[in-house]
Amino acid sequence: MSGLNLSPNKDEHFHSIKSQQRTNKSLNHFWHRPLSSAKIAFTLILFVIVILASEFFYIIVSKIGYYGPGFGYSTAAQSNLGDAIIVAGAVYVHLGHTYGKSTSETVKEMQKGAIIISYVTNTAKAANVVGVTDLKCRHVQGCQEVELVSIDLRDSLCYYVRVNKTVTLPTTSSNGVNSSSQTAVYGSRLLKSGEDQCSTSDKVSNWKVGSFPWP
Of the candidates 121, 202, 195, 97, which has an alpha carbon nearest to the alpha carbon of residue 160? Predict the structure, then answer.
């Protein structure tokens, strides 16, 4: 027994130690460290990318509009009218508290910069088309009224919005500044058999403040 060679056992023990050292080194790699600087930097980069993507989407939507079914609207036809209300409001301000001298002027101003929606006089016959009529209300001094219409070909529906703006003349308490109020009423109706268009001259009997009624 005294002449037995034990060197193989020493080699095995040496290799075992080296293997354990390599394992520990691998476990201590920077990706396995709980809060390494590389992980923090990588997380920050992802966060910045998400913020930039959100900003890009916001810029696109605010510049050209969102033309899917809108936030708060159930169909693209309703969404188009929601966009048209905003555009008409911008025209009203641009022209000095008026929708214009005529419907043609209102349509011309609303069409400027439009990409997806087409603004036309009075009648909507296709998707992404909004009919516009300047109603020229006279019942209140400073009153301006515009009616908008769109068509939902899928469900055979017409949707309408009538926007009324009234300017309040300046008083002493208002420091000489004009103020205006806006009222929007919404309507809808089913297309009759053979009809293929919706018009601002259509008879609408279910006007409702705040949202589109079901016909």
Answer: 202
Question: Which residues are 143's β-sheet partners?
Answer: 166
Beta-bridge partner residues of 181: 166
- Which stretches of 95-139 are DSSP H helices? 103-111
Residue whose token pair is 């009234």: 166
Helix (H) or strand (E) holding 53: helix 37-64
- 30: number of Cβ within 10 Å: 9
- Res 114 pLDDT > 60: yes
Do residues 131 and 107 touch, judged by C-beta distance below 8 A? Answer: no
Nearest to 130 by CA among 184, 192, 198, 183: 198
Contact between 51 and 57 (Cβ < 8 Å):
no
The Cα–Cα gap between 165 and 132 comes to 16
Q: What is the rounded CA–CA span in Å between residue 34 and residue 121?
A: 65
Which residue type is seen at 41?
Answer: A
Q: Which of 29-43, 157-171, 177-191 has the lowest mean pLDDT?
A: 29-43
Asked whether the beta carbons of 158 and 122 are under 8 A apart, the reply is: no
